C-alpha cells in the first residue's frame, strides 16, 4: 500500500504563496512542521506502520517525513528517491499565482490540475516520471505500507502510471494534493492497483 504525501506549508499566513519547484529549496514553516506531525499522529492512531519511507531531494519533503516518522514505534530510515523531485516551473518559478496566471492563463492551469498537461515553459518530463512510478508499483505485491513524501507537481503522475488508476482519477475534481494532504493507492487480492483516497487531510 502506497501513502503519497505532499509536504507541509513553506509559506506562513502573511506571506503570499509562490510557485516553488525544484530550484527553490525552502524549509517548512512552523505550521508546515505541525502538518507533518498531524499526519504522523493520524497514521499512528490507525496502526499504520511504514516499512519504507521515500522523499524527494528537497528539504521540505525530508522535514515532513521526519515529522511523520517521529510517531512511528519502529520507523524506517528515510531514503531519497530522485523521481519524487519537484517539477521545474521554468519562467514561473518563484512567481506569485497571479503572475503565473497572467503568463499561462486559467485554461492552461486547469489542464495541468485536471489532466497533468504541462504548461508552456515548465520542465516536467512526464514520461520519465510515469515510468518511475510504474517501476515502483511493479515491485511485487507486498502490501506493507510505504510512505512517499513529495510535491504537488510530482505526486499526480502516480495516478497516470496505471490504466486502472488513470480511470479512477478521472472522477477526481483535481489531481492536486493539498499541502499536508495525502492519497492512498492499494492493491486488491489479484494485485490490481486501486485509488483508495486522494486529497485527504487529517
Keywords summarizing the entry:
202 residues; alpha/beta; Rossmann fold; six-stranded mixed β-sheet; two-stranded antiparallel ribbon
**Main sheet overview:** 6 strands, mixed
Helix- and strand-based class? alpha/beta
Q: Which percent range describes the beta-strand content?
A: 15-25%
Number of strands: 8
Summarize the structure in words.
This protein is an alpha/beta fold. The chain has one domain: Phosphoglycerate mutase-like (Rossmann fold), CATH 3.40.50. The chain is built from six helices and eight strands. The protein has helices spanning 30-45, 59-69, 97-115, 126-137, 152-155, 163-169; strands at residues 2-6, 18-19, 52-55, 78-80, 95-96, 146-150, 182-187, 193-200. The strands form two sheets. The protein has a six-stranded mixed β-sheet with strand order 4-3-6-1-7-8. A two-stranded antiparallel sheet has the order 2-5. Strand 7 (182-187) and strand 8 form a beta hairpin. Helix 1 (30-45) crosses helix 2. The radius of gyration is 16 Å and the shape is globular. The two termini are 18 Å apart.
